[in-house]
Write a structure and sequence with these properties.
This protein is α/β, with parallel strands linked by helices. The protein is built from twelve helices and 18 strands. Strands 1, 11, 12, 13, 14, 15, 16, 17 and 18 form a nine-stranded mixed beta sheet that branches. Helix 2 runs parallel beside helix 3, helix 2 crosses helix 9 and helix 8 runs parallel beside helix 9. The N and C termini lie far apart (70 Å).
Length: 407
C-alpha cells in the first residue's frame, strides 16, 4: 500500500479516514503462530476491543483465529461475523452475573476474574466449565494505564487468594477448564512472561481438569523507526520449552492460548487527515487538521506516539510542526515534530492506527466518526461508511416544549 494508494483513498472517501492493510494483519498472525510452531495445541484469540469492525473480525476468523471478548456486544459481533462460539472467550471485568449468564448460553468460554461472581456462577451453573483469571502480581506494561497485573489492579483473582478460590470450586462442584493471566500491554522484557508463567504454572497444579492455559498478550510493537519491540521468536522458544515441560509434569497435553490485539492490527492501520490551516505563533508552527481526539485519543489519553508523515510531500524539506486537532480542548497529536514541509490541503498519515483508535472514537463536539477502509488484495474496500447528521440524531427524542394555548 503506497502513498499514492493512500492519497487515492483520501480523495475517494474523504478525510479523516482509517485504512487497514489486510496483508500486515496476516503477516503478524503468521509470525506469532510460527514462533510457537512447536506447540501441538496453539489457540489464538484476537482481542476484539482493539478493532471491532465486523469485516476485520471476518478476516481474522478466516486466518484461523478465535476471539477474546470483554462484553456481550463483542460476543454478538463475533457470532454475527461467523465466528464459532466455541472459538470465543469472554473475559469481562466488573460486569453483572446476568450478562455472564447470557453469554454462557451462547456457548462461549467463560473466564471469571473475581471470587464473588465465581461463587455465584458456580452455584447456579456447576456443569458449565469456567476459566479463571489470575492476578500474578507482576508489574508490567508501557505505563500505569495499561498495567493490569499488579497488586493494586482491579483485574483478576489474587494469586494469594488461591485457598479461598479452591474452596469455592470444591463447594460448588464446578469444573475449572482453563487458567488465564494478562499482566499489561507494551511489554518489552520477555522475562516478565517467563516470570509470570512460573506463577501461572504453580496455580494450574491446583486444578485437575484443565484444558488450556492462557497467557493473554501485551506484546510491544514498534511505533517509530528503530523502536524496540517484543522479541516474539525468543519468547516462542523459551515459553514453549517451559510449557511443554509443564504439560509433561501435569500429565496431559494442554492448549497454549494467547490474546493479541494491538500486536495483530496496530501496524496495519493508517489514519489519514487533511491539513486545514498552518498557523504560526511567536514560538510554534501549528498544522491544524480536520480531526481531533474525538477520532484518535491515544496521544492525549496514553501519551502514545504515532509517526506522522506528509504523504502529499513525502520528499520535501523537513521542518518542525506541532500537529493539532480541531476540538475545543487541547488535542495535540505531536509537538515540535520533524515533518516534511506542510501546506494547507496536504494529507498527513498517522502510523500504528489499527489498534484502539477507531474503537475509542466518539462524537465529541458533535463531529461525525470517520469511514473505515480495508486494503485487501491490492484494492480498497469500504468497510464502514462515514457518519452523517442523521446518525447524530438517531435514538435522540426531541421533546415538544411549545406551550399550548388555553381555550
Amino acid at each position: 500500500m503506497t502513498n499514492q494508494d493512500l492519497l487515492a483513498i483520501a480523495a475517494e472517501y474523504g478525510s479523516p479516514v482509517y485504512v487497514y492493510d489486510a496483508e500486515k494483519i496476516e503477516a503478524q498472525y503468521k509470525r506469532l503462530t510460527s514462533a510457537f510452531s512447536s506447540i501441538k495445541k496453539l489457540r489464538i484469540h484476537y482481542a476484539v476491543k482493539a478493532l471491532s469492525n465486523i469485516s476485520i473480525l471476518k478476516f481474522i476468523d478466516k486466518l484461523g483465529s478465535g476471539l477474546d471478548t470483554v462484553s456481550i456486544q463483542e460476543v454478538q459481533l463475533g457470532i454475527k461475523a461467523g465466528v464459532d462460539p466455541s472459538k470465543i472467550i469472554f473475559t469481562p471485568n466488573g460486569v453483572s452475573l446476568e450478562e455472564i449468564e447470557k453469554v454462557a448460553k451462547l456457548g462461549v468460554q467463560i473466564n471469571i476474574d473475581n471470587l464473588s461472581i465465581l461463587e455465584q456462577f458456580g452455584s447456579r451453573h456447576p456443569k458449565t466449565p469456567v476459566c479463571i483469571r489470575i492476578n500474578p502480581h507482576v508489574m508490567a506494561g508501557g505505563n500505569s494505564k495499561i498495567s493490569v497485573g499488579h497488586i493494586d489492579s482491579k483485574f483478576g483473582i489474587s494469586i494469594h487468594q488461591m485457598p479461598l478460590l479452591k474452596r469455592i470450586v470444591e463447594n460448588t462442584g464446578m469444573t475449572i477448564n482453563g487458567i488465564h493471566m494478562h499482566t499489561g500491554s507494551d511489554i518489552l522484557d520477555i522475562q516478565v512472561f517467563i516470570q509470570a508463567s512460573e506463577i501461572l504454572f504453580d496455580a494450574a497444579k491446583n486444578f485437575k481438569n484443565l484444558e488450556f492455559i492462557d497467557f493473554g498478550s501485551g506484546f510491544k510493537v514498534p511505533y517509530k523507526e528503530g523502536d524496540i519491540e517484543t522479541d516474539i521468536e525468543e519468547l516462542g522458544t523459551k515459553l514453549s520449552e517451559k510449557f511443554k515441560a509443564f504439560c509433561t509434569e501435569y500429565g496431559k497435553e494442554l492448549t497454549l492460548a494467547f490474546e493479541p490485539g494491538k500486536y495483530l492490527v496496530s501496524e496495519s492501520g493508517k489514519f489519514l487527515a487533511k491539513v486545514n490551516v498552518i498557523k504560526q505563533t511567536t514560538s510554534t508552527v501549528f498544522a491544524g487538521i480536520d480531526t481531533g481526539f474525538n477520532h484518535l485519543i491515544r496521544p492525549m489519553f496514553y501519551g502514545s506516539h504515532h509517526e506522522i508523515n506528509n504523504i502529499s510531500n513525502s520528499n520535501g524539506k523537513q521542518r518542525f510542526y506541532s500537529v493539532v486537532g480541531y476540538i475545543c480542548e487541547t488535542d495535540t497529536f505531536a509537538s515540535n515534530r520533524r515533518i516534511t514541509e506542510i501546506t494547507e490541503g496536504d494529507i498527513l498519515a498517522f502510523s500504528n492506527a489499527g489498534a484502539y483508535c477507531y474503537s475509542m472514537s466518539s462524537n465529541f463536539n458533535s463531529r461525525f466518526r470517520p469511514a473505515e477502509v480495508l486494503w485487501y488484495k491490492g484494492e480498497a474496500h469500504l468497510i464502514r461508511e462515514r457518519e452523517t447528521f442523521d446518525d447524530l440524531l438517531r435514538h435522540q427524542i426531541a421533546l415538544d416544549f411549545t406551550e399550548k394555548k388555553q381555550k
